[in-house]
Amino acid sequence: MATLQIEHLVRRFGQAAPALDGLSLSVAEQEFVFLLGPSGAGKTTTLRLTAGLDQPDSGRILLGGRDMAGIAPRDRNVAMVYDKNSLYPHLNVFENMAYPLRLRRMTDSDIRSRIGRTAEILGIGHLLDRRPGQLSGGQQQRVAIGRALVRDASIYLMDEPISHLDAKLRAHMRVEFKKLQREFAATILYVSHDQLEAMTMGDRIVVIDKGRVQQVGTPRQIFDTPANRFVAEFVGEPAMNTLDCALVQDGGDWRAEAPGVSLHLNAGWVTRHGLQNRRAGGVVLGMRPQHLTLAAPGDAGQPNVETGRVYAVETLGSETVYDVESGGRILRIWSRRAPDGRALPAIGAPISFRVDPGALHLFDSGTGQALAHPDPGPRRAA
Ligand code: ATP
Predict the structure, then answer these.
(1) How many A from CA of 39 to the centre of ligand 1?
(2) How far apart, in whole angstroms, are the C-alpha atoms of residue 48 and residue 263?
(3) Of the candidates 42, 48, 118, 320, which lies 20 to 30 Å from 287 by C-alpha distance?
(4) Model confidence over 268-302: pLDDT tens digits?
């Protein structure tokens, strides 16, 4: 039995489209589940309903199998990480963290050891005597996280708890959070719009948009086999390139064609996914920037080598992202090679790139639902 089961939740605010539109999800005991979605998707609303801070119009929330309808927040045994402003200003860090434990009549030695371990992992062990007003914003936020985690709750609800920390601390916290979760055998529902956090920390990810679940899966499943165009474009950095195309058959040869682009597809892949029946309708081709590679100028004209012009170049340390204008649209190419400044192509310069036909995704252009993903194989382990 899942620790948390959310069934068909609907929450409306006024006349606007519902914030939650029949949302269902579950979190198993000791599982770390991410609720990932863009701004306004309904993430915070889901957490507030789970904590009992707000009531659904319809649907059910079960915690440990028990229906939470009519149960007050304090009786739900849910720990929610509020932001740093929820710390008690007159109490030092130790007492802030000890407060929920004392309420539960934990012994002093248990309180000391639990706080000591949590504070060590969060890197706030040296701050236990200070008051919140004597801490930086990032330190206060870590104390707020620590205060929630020291509690023995059925489930921990976290609303973007590390999004305000600086990049280095966030990277540290991503690793430490996962460790803390394992160590405390905690069950966590964690809200974020940051896919990097979700991909690195989550056991499972629930992708939501407009109050509806778009896909549930492991980080790998979400990335490798996005259920629809929304997930494909939302998860992955840089985002997947998508291209409206027509499928064209020429004897045994299958091509995906769009203005300025003509890609040869693997015939076996086309028939295995029943795509031959799709000729009449439009499809959307998905290409991850990692699966487009720069080609030598002399390769132009070879199968699956396309041409365009450099629109922008972003150098990210050891990698480079090229925005290439091709057929009136921008395609992004992610390259592991980082040319030195002099070798960077000029804006507007012609550029050729190769498309790997074994790495294509295909979506229905009307519904957005996935029609085909790349075949699993050694290439995808790269
Ligand atoms: P963000 O990442 O920006 O925090 P979110 O996914 O957490 O977004 P919610 O805060 O759950 O989104 O909001 C979902 C929708 O419900 C939004 O359109 C929001 O404007 C609306 N909404 C949320 N709370 C209220 C409220 N109290 N009154 C009116 N509308 C609300």
Answers:
(1) 8
(2) 48
(3) 42
(4) 899 888 888 776 668 999 999 999 998 887 787 88
Q: What residue has token string 């194989």?
A: 377
Per-residue pLDDT, 380:
45
- CB distance 13 to ligand 1 below 6 Å: yes
Q: Domain residues of the chain, as ranges?
A: 4-229, 234-242+285-372
Which pLDDT score, from 0 to 100, does residue 382 have? 36
Binding site membership of 264 for ligand 1 (Cβ less than 6 Å): no
Does residue 132 have its Cβ closer than 6 Å to ligand 1?
no
Specify whether the CB–CB gap between 27 and 2 falls below 8 A.
Answer: yes
CATH classification number, 4-229, choose in 3.10.310.10, 3.40.50.920, 3.40.50.300, 2.160.10.10: 3.40.50.300
Other beta carbons less than 10 A from residue 280's beta carbon? 7
Best CATH choice for the domain 234-242+285-372 from the list 3.90.1150.10, 3.10.20.30, 1.10.10.10, 2.40.50.140? 2.40.50.140
Radius of gyration of the chain (CA): 25
* pLDDT, mean over the chain: 89
Please give the distance, rounded to the nearest whole angstrom, from the Cα atom of residue 182 to the centre of ligand 1. Answer: 31
Structure confidence at residue 339 (pLDDT): 61
Please report the sign of the dihedral spanned by the C-alpha atoms of residue 361, residue 362, residue 367, residue 368. positive
* Partner residues linked to 189 by β-bridges: 33, 157
Q: Whose CA is nearest to atom 18 of ligand 1?
A: 40
The model's confidence at residue 177, banded by pLDDT at 50, 70 and 90, is confident
Cα 76 from Cα 55, distance rounded (Å): 14
